[in-house]
Amino acid sequence: MCALKHSLVLEKMNCLCTLIKLEATHIYTYLGKKIDITPTQKDGPEKKITRLAIGVEGGFEPDDGKKYEFKESYSIVLMPTLATYSLDDPEVADKLSAVKAILEADCSTKLAELEALAGTWDGEKRIVTKHADNLKQLNNGVKIPSSGWQCSMCDLTSNLWLNLTDGAVLCGRKFFDGTGGNDHAVQHFSRTGYPLAVKLGTITQEGKADVFSYDEDDMVEDPNLVQHLAHFGINISAMRKTDKSMIELELEGNQKLGEWATMQEATGPIFGPGYTGMRNLGNSCYMNSVMQVIFSIEDFEKKYFENFTETFLRNTSTNPVQDFEIQMTKLGTGLLSGKYSKPLPEGSKEPRGISPNMFKNMISKGHPEFSTKHQQDAQEFFLHFLTTLQRNCRNSTDPSECFKFKVEDRFECGASHKVNYTYRTEYCLPLPIPLDSAINKDEVQAYKNHVKELESSGLKPDPNIIVRPIIKLQSCLEAFAKEDIIEQFFSSAINAKTTAKKTTLLSTFPDYLMLHLKKFMLKEDWTPMKLDVAVDMPDILDIRHLKGHGLQDWETPLPELEGKPDFYLDDAIIQPLVDMGFPLEAAKKAAFFTSNEGLDKATEWVMQHVGDSDFADTFVVPGTNSDKNFVPNEESLSMIMGMGFTKTQATKALKETNNEVDRAVDWIFSHPEASSSTEEESQPEFRDGSGVYRLVGFISHMGTSTMVGHYVCHILREGHWVIYNDENVSLCSNPPRLLGYLYLYKRVE
After folding, report:
1. Residue 515: how many CB atoms within 10 A of its CB?
2. 377 and 520 in contact (C-beta within 8 Å)?
3. Which residues sit opposite 698 in a β-bridge?
4. Do 46 and 65 belong to one domain?
5. Please, is 358 exposed, middle or buried when counting C-beta atoms within 10 Å of its C-beta (0-12, 13-18, 19+)?
6. Are 261 and 397 contained in the same domain?
7. Would you say 590 and 602 are in contact if contact means Cβ atoms under 8 Å apart?
8. Helix, strand, coil % (nearest 5) of the chain?
9. Span 54-75, mean pLDDT?
10. CA–CA dist 614, 403 (Å, integer)
């Protein structure tokens, strides 16, 4: 019987802390549980996994390999006397019907899993393509045989995709390990715009197959697939599945990654407080890695673990499932208490870890990306988590203060050489990766030449032998702090546009410095890719040379701007960029900084700056003070003030969000340090100290883009490195520091 049913009964009865399934200690008081060891017999070959799901047909079985079974008994506990009754007791007969219904119900996790899988194929939830009913198919006489396919542009005979518009058979994308295809199918889409392709070899007699929509950039469902295939002479009744589906390839890749972790981290598992793993809920490794790192920090341990009993006694939430404080405390207790990290019982294949189902549902609720089971960017989730944290800590200690630092931007007018300093708050320091600063350029070029020779001979390079560019972290820091030239800078000193020099430094140093290496970018065809580079990260990092000191005695500040400068933004440039999915404010910047010279130049500007930390921030003409010229919409101002916020808060939020009410309210919640009611209170406080840090953790990504691959994290605990690979927690003698994505440094006092 599903263990979650037990907690559901206890939740309904408000049985102490088991309301939110935190303390198993209380469960054993009212739930009798006996473990009987039973022999395990296996009939036939090992089951093949075909769905990326847990506890459903074709997916992973959570109890696979178990050599015991539970025998359980139930009791009813009446509050507040804590009187206990057997289910057979006549004194509680009127309660039995409700209890019976609860016990017989499917647990909430199973229902949520089944709901997510409804209408899916091979365990991946897919949308119905917008091209299903109006797909253009050319009458070009192309007929596709039932077998013997080959890419029309190379000699590949696997990973082939049939374009459903013109019948072209082409190979798919190249995978991160060097296998896969040669990108001919996606190149064909770039040339023709024909959107749908079906993977040959995955077509079944039931009319199911892998269908990819290039302009929707996702795997999709095509309800008219049978008719679309028939157009090219394909009779599905004669088809047999002969190739791996994309979900099978993803599973296989993850299994290979698991083997990689085993080979690299051969020191062995470790158990105890702080060494608890987190089960993968279906591409939730990005969340698991971030939260493991979060709970390695004293600020979070102190707030959400040390006083967890007091938290539950004090909290009066009527909906603990969606209560941030309760779910964080529950997660922190699960990870740090050590109760769920003990040596494996006899017969267990691997650690179970804890299942952060409720936390994931709470933290991702309403978010268009994190609420799905798709792979996500760990850095984006980290910032989303901090935003949610700050929203829920307005009247209590905010542990995210340990990450917060002030960034100083200095602008020097190219005509008058007068300066202007602006400041902003950040929680993560993004660093560019200058490929031209690689210290092994000759070796990299020799490797590339070797790969070309192999491919020209029809051979594939060994994916286990890769020569990556190696770049020093110091080169990344220099690229961050280097002087940039700003075009179209409006100088209040000359009351006209000119060029300016911009330098960025740190005005304060946080207790914990999170570094974000900007490895992900967009290719020319706008598909995401990851730079395959190695960055040499030191154990001890000294960034004192990046300290900003504000206006100096020898500098003359730019005068305050009188009036508002005239400028024009071409909507014929802005709107197409917005239609492509870029933020409106970014589109405005693209038009402005390219002097409205056309969509092509604006698009190029966007592609070059999409990784900027202020990419989507409100557009302000460089050199102007937006606070002096902004006029809030009176109706919007009244609406926000009607919610209990002050005029100062409402005005600031509307300015930051271009007078959009909904965004303004969200901005107030996510920027508590900037929303105080008085000018003096609105100045955020920053922790500051030495700029010398020690590496204490990092998150690594394996794969070609944020949409695929796998995340793991390494954390320095009690003097040794530990790898957290979902539920697997092991000692690590040689952590791969060069291949990380997010790095956490702690100040050395």
Report:
1. 25
2. yes
3. 714, 743
4. yes
5. buried
6. yes
7. yes
8. 35, 20, 45
9. 54
10. 18
| Structural domain harbouring 200 | 123-244
Q: How many structural domains comprise the chain?
A: 3
Distance of alpha carbon 259 from alpha carbon 262, whole angstroms:
5
Same-domain check for residues 171 and 258: no
What would the pLDDT profile of 346-399 be if each residue is shown by its tens digit?
A: 766 666 789 998 999 899 887 777 777 777 889 999 999 999 999 888 788 899
- The DSSP annotation for 541-601 comes to EE-GGGB---S-TT--BPPPPPS-------HHHHHHHHHTT--HHHHHHHHHHTTT--HHH
Is residue 686 domain-resident? Answer: no
525 versus 643: which is more confidently predicted?
643
Shared domain for 142 and 213, answered yes or no, is: yes
Closest CA to 336 of 746, 717, 728, 742: 717
HSE on the CB side for 505, CA within 13 Å?
Answer: 17
Tell which residue, 353, 351, 339, 354, has the closest CA to residue 269.
351
Q: What DSSP string describes 37-96?
A: E------SSPPPP-SS-BSSTTSB-TTTT--EEEEEEEEEEETTTTEEEETT-GGGHHHH
- 578: in domain: no
Dihedral angle computed from the Cα positions of residues 634, 640, 641 and 644, in that order, rounded to the nearest 10 degrees: 180
First-residue to last-residue Cα distance in the chain: 52
Given the residues 15, 17, 285, 476, select the one marked as catalytic.
285
- ∠ at Cα 709 (705, 715), nearest 5°? 105
Active site residue 710: yes
Q: Which amino acid is at 81?
A: T
154 annotated as a binding-site residue:
yes
- Residue 180 per-residue DSSP state: B
**DSSP E strand boundaries for 341-418:** 405-413
pLDDT digits (tens, 9 = 90+) for 454-469: 888 878 777 777 889 9
Taking the C-alpha atoms of residue 430 and residue 405, their distance in angstroms, rounded to an integer, is 13
Which residue, among 565, 620, 566, has the nearest Cα to 588 in the 3D structure?
620
Q: DSSP label at 492?
A: T
| Residues 210 and 142 both lie in one domain | yes
Q: Which helix (H) or strand (E) holds 311?
A: helix 308-314
Tell whether 171 is in a known binding site.
Answer: yes
What does the DSSP 8-state code read for residue 149? -
State the Cα–Cα distance between residues 19 and 320, nearest whole angstrom. Answer: 8
- Residue 497 φ then ψ, to 5°: -80, 145
The active-site residue out of 131, 701, 710, 714 is 710
C-alpha pair distances (Å), 698 with each of 150, 222, 480, 721: 43, 41, 20, 11
Which pTM value belongs to this model? 0.65
Whether 428 has a binding-site annotation, put simply, is no
Question: How does pLDDT run across 471-494, given as a tens digit for each residue?
Answer: 999 999 999 999 999 888 888 888
Q: Identify whether 720 is a catalytic site residue.
A: no
267 shares a domain with 161 = no
